[in-house]
Each structure stands twice: as C-alpha cells, then as structure tokens.
What does this fold into?
Amino acid sequence: MTEIGRPQNAPPFHAERLLLLATGSLSATFLPYWLNWLRLSYHDLELRVVLTRSAERFVSRQSIAAIIGKPVPLDVWEDTPEPGSPHVDYAMWPDTVLVYPATYHFLSRFANGFGDTPMLLALQCTSALIGIAPALPPGATDSYAYRQNRAAIEARPNVVVVDPVPTLSAHTRERDAMASAPITTLIERVAMLRADREKESP
It folds into this structure.
C-alpha cells in the first residue's frame, strides 16, 4: 500500500464520478475483479455501471450490484415510461466514462455516430473523458473497418483508445484473439488525456 492507502499498482486517477459501460465480450468476466480493485484503489470515487444485453452472457447484474452497492441498469430503452431521461443522466453525471470491454460491434456503432441506446447516445453527447478498451476476435485488428473506426474515434478530443492485448481465443485455442488491456492501462491513458486538456485550458 502507498502512504495514501492506495494499492501499489494503482496509478493516479483524478476522476470523481466514473460511469463504466461493459459490452458483450469474454473480457467482461473480469469485471468483478476490476470493480473491486477500483473500490479499493480510489476510496472517494463514485462508481456506476451499465451493462449491454450481450454483456449479461458473461457477467450478471446481480453480482455487479453486490460489489458496487447500486442498481446496474441495462443499456436499453425501457418499455415502461419513467421520469427523466437516462441518456441525459449518463451524459451529464460522470466526469469520466470507461468502456470495458468494448466489442467490435460497439466500436463500429460509436465511430459512426449511432445513438440507438441510452449509453451510445450519451457518449455521442457527453463532454466527459472517455476511455475505451477494445476486445477483438482473431484478425480484427488488421481489418480495414476496424482501422477506420478506430481512427474516427481517436479523432475525438475527449476520447482515448488503448491497444488490446493478445490472448487465447476461446475458439481456435491459439493466442490470436485480443483481450481488453488492464484497466490500469486505461486509467493511465485517461489521466494523460486529462492532464493534456488541463494544460490547454486558459
């Protein structure tokens, strides 16, 4: 532990309100570990989590809710009208958003300006810093569409994308799939972006 009670491997992270979106990749199975790590590492951090329907194949909302002590909504438009607008809340509440893991499908929709779910619409509109950790199938990093979509995302001034890391494919059993980088790497990149933007501010 450091002198401020943070684990040794926890980089400085000046976020106060963190919203985390998990999409449907096998890397989502590691989310409970990382959420526990976030709670231990940054005691004053307010943390909320949203899951896509596909993420529920790999991690349950009940387990996440038990860890963070808050309800974990799905990233869907509710059939029953409720007061307020979730996309406005998701856009305005956080100062930082992490997409962990981010699937090929999510990256394509985000890059092309889609807003067909509350979180996607919020991410298109928010001024919060956004950190994205892709998790990709074999061959995806070399595809034309991925390179184009990643370039479009990285052109946004409030977004950083971290490189995925090689991992064992659940299908081929070879190290030809790409898992999300550790959240520590994502936090470091977001912290660098925040520092750069603060230098640019008058």
Summary: The longest strand covers residues 96-102. The domain at 17-75+85-200 is CATH 3.40.50.1950 (Rossmann fold).
